[in-house]
Design goal:
One of its GO terms (molecular function) is serine-type carboxypeptidase activity. With 516 residues, the chain is an alpha/beta fold. It contains 12 helices and 23 strands.
Length: 516
């Protein structure tokens, strides 16, 4: 069809404008758009010399439209560290439900003859990481309240809800004593309400005088750990508390001037829990004549007492805010149990991988649920794809609320971001998951721009050689909070006040004695 005169004029005008723009000097070109400025500024941030030998993957997308605003190595597989918990936590909520609870039961077999139980007493767990010594004491009190005073059979610990594999395939053996690498069991206990399952707090205090032995105690009180105390009272605190490999012997050396606490894992959490429960039964007047054993609870056993944990909707807070590795692994095995009837890493990770691929993350390798494995692999593009997909989930608001919030000093609000980005446009704005291993750091989540546009982002930095690179993540997050499609922001004027930490290249949550 022949163009009208109006169309012809418009086309001619466009051609003239194009020619004029092409021939104009650089100084006459229109100022760069907000997106162009953003790209330039992130490129500048990533030009940091610490990243010269490293790998950096960064993706930023509009959560409103899905538009990609920035991408560097979007599809490269990188070590995510604790950013893996974004996948695990979302899969857990989707698979298990926000109302999911762990149940721990005391059951009996045999018959009752007055106050005597002529049979075995079973303690059956399903992985509850929130059980404290006080909760096992409460279960023992309920056994006594039921009228049982003597058990002629055995005390049986039933941890068969999960398999017997206690540690992740790729976990470093020298991490074994530390609470962030505790053994996974369907029967476990935590020392406090951070719920670091499978660990005990070992406390060291100065002795009566200089040179005298330090004083040692545990929370909870237990003789399951054998304490070898070689620490003495000195002018400064320079103490090492370490469980010896594959044993429950804890060696304490050095000097102590002030009270000091260390969270130490136990070898074989099932045995530890059985010892706590047997002592609790005795405290409440219940004698178990038989030995402690391990086996599955027979079908038809009678429930004597039971305890349900808090729902998953509440557990998400200490899990994600404090980046709790053990919660991630317990939930991974719980997913496997729910989906395929097998409480194993392989079954759980298969289900998590399937969930991720169905929700914006086509490329991933999951070797555990927490990110403690250095063989885990995610892509920045896949992480942002998942973050976008999760926004449409009916449970999104609860899950989103579990993410650490930049600069909020409340430990159960700011979490691992509580000391970062304070006094900047990102404070109270960035909701994101941190991640750290030596030479690895990551930060992925949500931020609202200066134009009130919701954004998703993923920053994954691998193989930097020394120190910390978290300030690079923070600068990017702050820049995103300043992003405007119409008004440029000068990255040189970004104010970044990051709290100093004793060991800034690891998760804040790994530094238990430090208020970080």
């Amino acid at each position: 069809m022949r163009p009208t005169r109006r169309t012809t004029i418009s086309v001619s005008a466009l051609l003239l404008a194009s020619l004029a723009w092409a021939s104009a000097p650089a100084s006459a070109v229109e100022p760069a758009s907000g997106v162009t400025d953003l790209v330039k500024d992130i490129d500048q941030i990533l030009s940091d010399a610490r990243l010269t030998p490293a790998r950096a993957g960064v993706v930023v997308k509009s959560a409103a439209s899905g538009e990609e605003l920035y991408a560097q190595d979007s599809g490269k597989v990188l070590t995510p560290a604790s950013n893996a918990k974004l996948v695990t936590s979302a899969a857990a909520v989707d698979t298990l439900g926000l109302d999911f609870r762990f149940t721990t039961s005391v059951l009996s077999t045999g018959r009752r003859a007055g106050s005597a139980l002529t049979g075995n007493l079973y303690l059956k767990g399903t992985g509850d990481p929130t059980l404290l010594a006080a909760d096992y004491d409460a279960l023992a009190a309920r056994v006594a309240a039921s009228g049982i005073k003597v058990v002629t059979g055995k005390l049986v610990a039933d941890d068969t809800w999960f398999d017997s594999v206690r540690l992740g395939t790729d976990w470093a053996w020298d991490d074994e004593p530390y609470y962030y690498s505790a053994q996974i069991s369907a029967l476990t206990a935590s020392p406090d309400t951070d719920y670091d399952a499978g660990s005990v707090v070992v406390s060291v205090a100065p002795g009566d005088a200089a040179g005298k032995p330090a004083k040692v105690s545990t929370t909870p009180e237990t003789d399951y750990l054998k304490i070898v105390n070689r620490a003495t009272t000195g002018a400064e605190t320079d103490v090492l508390i370490e469980r010896q490999h594959s044993t429950n012997t804890v060696l304490i050396t050095g000097t102590v001037a002030d009270d000091y606490n260390e969270w130490v894992t136990v070898d074989d959490p099932t045995g530890y829990v059985a010892s706590l429960f047997r002592k609790a039964l005795a405290k409440h007047g219940v004698r178990v004549l038989g030995s402690t054993a391990r086996e599955a609870t027979p079908a038809g056993a009678t429930t004597v007492a039971a305890r349900d944990s808090m729902p998953l909707s509440e557990l998400l807070v200490p899990f994600m805010k404090l980046s709790n590795n053990m919660h991630a692994e317990i939930l991974t095995k719980s997913i496997g149990r729910k989906v395929s009837g097998a409480g194993t890493w392989s079954a759980g990770l298969a289900a998590i991988t399937s969930f991720a691929r169905a929700n914006g993350m086509p490329t991933l390798r999951m070797r555990d649920g927490s990110g403690l494995s250095r063989v885990d692999g995610l892509t920045p593009g896949g992480v942002t794809g998942l973050l976008l997909a999760l926004r449409s989930k009916p449970w999104f608001s609860t899950w989103y609320g579990s993410l650490p919030i930049a600069g909020d000093p409340d430990r159960m609000v700011g979490g691992t971001l509580r000391s970062r980005m304070r006094g900047t446009p990102a404070a109270g704005n960035v909701h994101a998951k941190t991640g750290s291993l030596t030479g690895v750091t990551s930060l992925s989540g949500y931020v609202t721009s200066a134009d009130n546009e919701p954004l998703v982002f993923s920053v994954m930095l691998n193989q930097f050689l020394s120190g910390s690179a978290k300030d690079i993540e923070d600068k990017i997050a702050i820049r995103l909070a300043q992003f405007s499609r119409t008004a440029p922001a000068d990255v040189a004027n970004v104010q970044l006040r990051q709290a100093q930490q004793d060991s800034a290249d690891v998760e804040c949550s790994w530094l238990k004695p430090v208020s970080c």
